[in-house]
Specification:
Shape of chain A: globular
Largest sheet of chain A: 7 strands, parallel
Helix content of chain B: 55-70%
Number of strands of chain B: 5
Number of domains of chain A: 3
Radius of gyration of chain B: 18 Å
Radius of gyration of chain A: 24 Å
CATH superfamily of the largest domain in chain A: Trimethylamine methyltransferase-like
CATH architecture of the largest domain in chain B: 3-Layer(aba) Sandwich
Structural class of chain B: alpha/beta
CATH topology of the largest domain in chain B: Rossmann fold
Number of domains of chain B: 2
Oligomer: heterodimer
Helix content of chain A: 40-55%
CATH superfamily of the largest domain in chain B: Cobalamin-binding domain
Number of helices of chain B: 9
CATH class of the largest domain in chain A: Alpha Beta
Number of helices of chain A: 18
Shape of chain B: globular
Structural class of chain A: alpha/beta
Strand content of chain A: 5-15%
Largest interface: A-B, 17 and 26 residues
Strand order of the largest sheet of chain A: 6-18-17-14-12-10-9
CATH topology of the largest domain in chain A: TIM Barrel
CATH class of the largest domain in chain B: Alpha Beta
Distance between the termini of chain A: 61 Å
Chain lengths: 489, 222
């Protein structure tokens, strides 16, 4: 069976569901977008325009959530780059929207640059656990703020054939990206048939507040049939209750409110239930993520997503440490393992310092931890063939002979290696002699060398030249339009 | 022309059989090669040996795993021991090998998987290997070295409690006055390069592939 972790019983899941409905029906959520208020009003929810408040009756929530698909495909440049979301699929991605990068050469923190985005996408593209690399740095410091989404979009497209992204900080930015996404898809009609991009992503501000700009970006994406990431960032003990159960209710209610909006705008549009909880450190007030409560929270919300039958993502497995050290290793492992065992579809990597700083070395280290944790999640297959009695019958008696007996050369062994064994990519498994001869390197150095090797050798599949040309032309057009608009205002 | 062509085809088949990691196929193809009149020496050198070289290269590149390496080596070992060596005897030819090696797991120790893998790889690499088995007293090692006139003695130990037997072997060789005639290599989980040096062995190998390299170095082969 697959290896599973659960922290909520069936009854507790239902209790949290009912409590979330109570919150949405009697307290409601805040939507600062007038358009969103009108959408809810037209659908029959109880809207108070003055207080920006939307109360959604329980039956309506259940009805709308049921419209969201359990599984869907985001199309890559070729079918082999498609990403399937939902069910038992589990993959790693890069975390995102960090301002800083830990510089590999100096070890110091600095602002993230467009070159870093390119590097991270390239490394993600090279790692087999990452089917759709996120650019990590969302606001490259060397690009004017108003042009960042365009530059980032083009950098992403050039460096991976994976599905695209829509950077939707507001409606205009979403529209700009959707223009590019449509060209990449081969036109508006194709885009409708084969959605090839994510709205990345919708982060409501706790408690239960949906900012106007991000929400309008969501509406724009939903209209075009582009799936949406909902990523509440409830902060245990500060912007959410101190009790984990209370925070889970709030996170759940926030996800449901967002999903309702998307399903009213475009019934059946893909959504991902998500969770980026932080836990207020009791001494420093820092929003800690490398702590046991954070992992428990992520396991619980993953269970809630499974209860609704929705694809899910869980941002557990990033450390509070400032450097690549033992703390970074254990906090990452203790976050990634339980969420993968809970069944989260997307988990993230490549950062340190409670999601403040992207880190190159951690990206390949997380890839290794993911591989190990995923192997554990896949569990043990027990059947007549895997129990191997016929092979044991053949080999065990040979122990009595001079030649001895072992399983290494058996057909059964060779046939099952690939499925049974995880192959470590970074961890050292050599003998001391071999390790010393290779320079007695610690993991930090090995990870750094791996990053450099990938950057020096990996060439992502280049985009079709004609489409790239068209996209470059469109990107220039959009940039001119933005700069002209800026001058006018 | 036909002969040359069929010879080439059979060599290719031998290489392919080794690369299939299937002992039955290797034995069957070796038989076929003997039937059409190829010499055992040529079969080892141009067929099995070539296949094993490719297997070794694939292993280095991480395209296959240790189990594949062992399976290929054991398949070749079986073809050599079961088919080719008897044929050499029958033809009253002398086998050209890289050298003679006496190998065994020391007394008190029954953990022989490492030794068995080393044996297979050494045989496949072209050594004439005399395997004593496991739980082997010092005297048996010495007797076999005398009997075969071997150039290398290889002893393995997994337990820290049995590793001292390797020292006893070195001491016994000295006492018998044949220490200089034979190179001693040690291996096993309880053993390290420091230990090899301490007991006066000639070398230590951390794994099976390294053991083959070490044995080749002893014989002055690249």
């Amino acid at each position: 069976m697959r290896c599973r972790v659960e922290v909520l019983s069936r009854d507790e899941i239902y209790d949290i569901h009912v409590a979330s409905l109570e919150v949405l029906e009697y307290t409601g959520a805040t939507f600062w977008s007038k358009e969103a208020l009108k959408i809810f009003d037209d659908y029959g929810a109880m809207v108070d325009y003055e207080k920006f408040n939307v109360k959604i009756p329980g039956y309506m929530v259940e009805e709308l959530v049921r419209k969201a698909p359990k599984k869907f495909i985001i199309h890559g440049r070729k079918p082999k780059y498609n990403v399937e979301w939902g069910g038992k699929k589990q993959f790693l991605d890069l975390g995102g929207d960090y301002l800083y990068v830990i510089d590999m050469e100096t070890g110091k923190r600095r602002f993230g640059l467009l070159k870093d985005c390119e590097n991270f996408i390239k490394i993600g593209d090279a790692l087999e656990n990452i089917p759709q690399p996120y650019p990590v740095i969302r606001y490259p410091h060397d690009v004017p703020e108003e042009l960042q989404h365009v530059e980032l979009w083009m950098t992403h497209y050039r460096n991976t054939p994976a599905p695209c992204l829509v950077f939707s900080e507001d409606r205009d930015k979403a529209k700009d990206c959707i223009e590019l996404v449509a060209i990449a898809a081969g036109g508006e009609e194709e885009l409708k048939k084969k959605p090839n991009a994510w709205n990345a992503g919708m982060c409501p501000s706790p408690p239960l507040l949906f900012g106007d700009k991000l929400t309008e970006g969501v509406i724009e994406c939903a209209k075009h049939g582009l799936p949406i990431w909902f990523l509440p960032m409830d902060n245990v003990g500060a912007t959410a209750p101190i009790t984990l159960a209370g925070t889970i209710v709030q996170t759940n209610a926030t996800n449901l409110a967002g999903i309702c909006l998307a399903q009213i705008v475009n019934p059946g549009v893909g959504v991902s239930y998500g969770d980026i909880p932080t836990v207020t450190d009791l001494r420093t007030g820092i929003p800690s993520v490398g702590c046991p409560e954070q992992a428990l929270h992520c396991v619980a919300t993953t269970q809630m997503a499974r209860f609704y039958g929705l694809p899910s993502q869980s941002w557990s497995g990033i450390s509070d440490s400032k450097i690549v050290d033992v703390q970074a290793g254990y906090e990452s492992a203790l976050g990634l393992l339980p969420t993968l065992l809970a069944g989260a579809n997307r988990v993230v990597s490549g950062a340190l310092e409670y999601h403040y700083s992207a880190c190159y070395e951690m990206l390949v280290i997380h890839d290794e931890i993911f591989g190990m944790a995923k192997r554990m999640a896949d569990g043990i297959e027990v059947n007549e063939d895997t129990m191997a009695v016929s092979v044991i019958k053949k080999i065990a008696p040979l122990a009595a002979t001079k030649a001895g007996g072992h399983y290494m050369a058996e057909k059964h062994t060779l046939e099952h290696i690939d499925k049974e064994r995880y192959v470590p990519k970074l961890s050292d498994k050599t003998s001391r002699d071999v390790w010393e001869k290779a320079g007695s390197k610690d993991l930090r150095q090995v990870a750094r060398e791996r990053v450099k090797e990938i950057l020096a050798t990996h060439v992502p599949e280049p985009p079709p030249p004609d489409i790239l040309k068209e996209l470059e032309k469109k990107a220039e057009e959009i940039k001119k339009r933005i700069l002209k608009g800026k001058k006018l205002s | 022309m036909v002969k040359i062509l069929s010879t080439k085809i059979i060599y290719d088949e031998l290489v392919a059989a080794v690369l299939s990691f299937d002992a039955d196929k290797v034995l069957e193809t070796t038989k076929k090669a003997l039937d059409i009149g190829l010499s055992p020496g040529d079969i080892i050198e141009n067929g099995l040996g070539k296949g094993l070289k490719t297997v070794g290269e694939k292993f280095e590149k991480c395209e296959i795993w240790l189990m594949h390496l062992v399976a290929a080596a054991e398949a070749a070992q079986r073809a050599i021991v079961e088919l080719l060596e008897p044929e050499i005897l029958k033809r009253k030819e002398t086998r050209t090998s890289l050298g003679k090696i006496v190998i065994g797991t020391v007394a008190g120790d029954i953990h022989d998987i490492g030794k068995n893998i080393v044996r297979a790889l050494l045989t496949a690499a072209g050594f004439e290997v005399h395997d004593l088995g496991k739980d082997i007293p010092v005297k048996d090692f010495i007797d076999k070295v005398r009997e075969t006139n071997a150039s290398i003695l290889a002893a393995s130990a997994l337990l820290t409690s049995t590793a001292p037997m390797q020292r006893d072997i070195v001491e016994a060789l000295k006492k018998e006055g044949i220490r200089k005639k034979v190179k001693v290599m040690v291996g096993g989980a309880a053993v390290s390069a420091e230990w090899a040096e301490e007991i006066g062995a000639d070398g230590y190998a951390p794994n099976a592939a390294a053991a083959v390299e070490l044995a080749k170095r002893f014989m002055g082969v690249k």
